[in-house]
Amino acid sequence: MTNQTDYPKIVAASENALIVYFASTPDKAVSAQITAVQHIISKELGCDILDLVPSFNSLLVIYNALNTDHFVVARVIENACCTARQTQFQQTQGKLVTLPVYYAEESGPDLLTIANDKNISVDEVIKRHSAKEYQVYSIGFAPGFAYLGEVDPMIAAPRLQTPRKKVPKGAVAIADQQTAVYPSQSPGGWNIIGLCPTPLFDLSQTPAMPFNVGDRVCFKPIDKAEYLAQGGELHDI
Asked: Which of left, alpha, beta for 93 (phi over 0: left; psi -120 to 50: alpha)?
């Protein structure tokens, strides 16, 4: 049986990449540890690092194999994990990003389903979703798609049995205990509860995304007029 003493684990991912697993399941402490180790590795290896990709409970370290090798990078990772552990990788709050959301049945076709399944009102679903600050655990699936956790257990909802072929840009959704905003139109199986007018990925802007792993996100309910005034569009979902 795997337990916390089995971590961190360093595994070869390719000829010039290692992946570090910090725990079997994600939480805020694990996210803080990943952020701390990421900073230490970046400082120690500098230009020898091609990319550092944090995820829920792991960190992918991609390095320049012309300048360094697996053994050197693994040693730096081990030292970084040790340093982070000794300093108790104090959790940094990260920046707080507030995203406006138009919650309504016309913008959130799964709002009523979640409310009925949980035997609560639509207003209560909205209240519980917008009452929390969510940690950015990972960014993936599509550029700007941030996996946020965790939602109030009362509004957690399983993925749709049949994914939608077209989920609109800005769709705010729930899957199990996570929530997210679709940065662009794509297929998807999450439960849509609203629409956000804020662009989440724009290569013409610096930075291209409003958040990074370790940041926090909160949702602010707005009405239809505010949503449209901020550039939002209504879609047939």
From this structure: alpha
Q: What is the DSSP letter of 177?
A: T
Beta-strand (E) ranges in 92-199? 96-102, 133-139, 146-149, 164-167, 171-175, 178-181, 186-188, 191-195
- What CA–CA distances, in Å, run from 195 to 1, 105, 181, 227? 42, 10, 8, 8
- Residue ranges and CATH numbers for the domains of the chain are 4-86 (3.30.1360.40), 96-229 (2.40.100.10)
Please check whether residue 23 is in contact with residue 30, taking contact to mean a CB–CB distance below 8 angstroms.
Answer: yes
DSSP-derived secondary structure for 31-46:
HHHHHHHHHHHHHHHG
Weakest-pLDDT range from 36-40, 138-142, 231-235: 138-142
Beta-strand ranges (E) seen in the chain are: 9-14, 17-21, 49-54, 58-63, 96-102, 133-139, 146-149, 164-167, 171-175, 178-181, 186-188, 191-195, 216-222
Which letter does DSSP use for residue 164 in this model?
E
Nearest by Cα to 145 from 122, 175, 102: 175
C-alpha angle 115/120/122, rounded to 5°? 50
pLDDT at 224 over 70: yes
Beta carbons within 8 Å of 96's beta carbon, 6+ residues apart: 133, 215, 216, 217, 218
pLDDT per residue as tens digits for the range 105-138: 999 999 999 999 999 999 999 999 999 999 898 8
**Residues forming beta bridges with residue 136, ordered by sequence position:** 148
Query: Rounded to an integer, what distance in angstroms lies between the CA atom of residue 188 and that of residue 218?
Result: 22
